[in-house]
Amino acid sequence: xxxxxxxxxxxxxxxxxxxxxxxxxxxxxxxxxxxxxxxxxxxxxxxxxxxxxxxxxxxxxxxxxxxxxxxxxxxxxxxxxxxxxxxxxxxxxxxxxxxxxxxxxxxxxxxxxxxxxxxxxxxxxxxxxxxxxxxxxxxxxxxxxxxxxxxxxxxxxxxxxxxxxxxxxxxxxxxxxxxxxxxxxxxxxxxxxxxxxxxxxxxxxxxxxxxxxxxxxxxxxxxxxxxxxxxxxxxxxxxxxxxxxxxxxxxxxxxxxxxxxxxxxxxxxxxxxxxxxxxxxxxxxxxxxxxxxxxxxxxxxxxxxxxxxxxxxxxxxxxxxxxxxxxxxxxxxxxxxxxxxxxxxxxxxxxx
Length: 352
Ligand SMILES: Cc1ncc(COP(=O)(O)O)c(C=O)c1O
Known about the structure:
- The protein is built from eleven helices and eleven strands.
- It is of the alpha/beta class.
- The two termini are about 35 Å apart.
- The structure holds pyridoxal-5'-phosphate.
């Protein structure tokens, strides 16, 4: 987390230790400020942001709230992250089926998607950047196919948003969900969802959180009647006043906005270039795309050695990378310098 976020977290802790300094109005102003920042990030009205606590939150909202009929089908990508698959699999008892596209090159292209859509397909749910390979879908062409076919495009932006720009005013997706604790530099237990307002209006989901129903009125006299027409706010995660999460995450998103996503993207791409050009391809198989620096994730596997052993060695030297499916995943972002990436590459290239 950026230093400003750590300061905001400390402030949230201070408020908890000194509750007399926590004004009731913060129950409204703190989540509102987060929505303002996310609205700016995605170029939509803050009123359209649903505060979540994960990527899964928004996916479950959609899976449980869409008006299904027996025989409806959800199209998924084989090998996608589990969070994109499981919420839909739970719809079996309603007669809703899941079907998988098996992409010929990591992620489906528009043609593969088009060929997989049937008259029963209602939703195509996919990750934007794949968690284990770094390959991404071509959002523009995939979204065009979905629009032409009348299929809802549900996008998981967890491994992309914060490093890639998503302008929802321009890009036609029907819903986006994301965790806040990856490329958006927030604490764990954060996330958001955006659902196109017409789509949101048609959800049939019983959610009536008492705090959302109070408008922004005083907390000393509670309304108990359900307020209709709350819009996206109806679906905010319970406990919107989770100050320890919302305050630092807001500070992180505001920080990213102040730096500008294009310049963060520029920095990240330079880090990626160092990885792609620096890693010894004789020693390592590079799973992620090498033809461009646009991926957020760099994934490699040692051709001869023990990848787990190499992972353990580099971790013990203070590098924070992940081991996924016996591959090393490197996710450099604005918290890294070029020198750090160069020294990681030098170290990796020393392993036989
Ligand atoms: C694409 C993707 N979606 C979701 C998650 C996590 O899901 P959630 O935020 O629901 O815990 C991850 C990784 O942890 C991920 O890589």
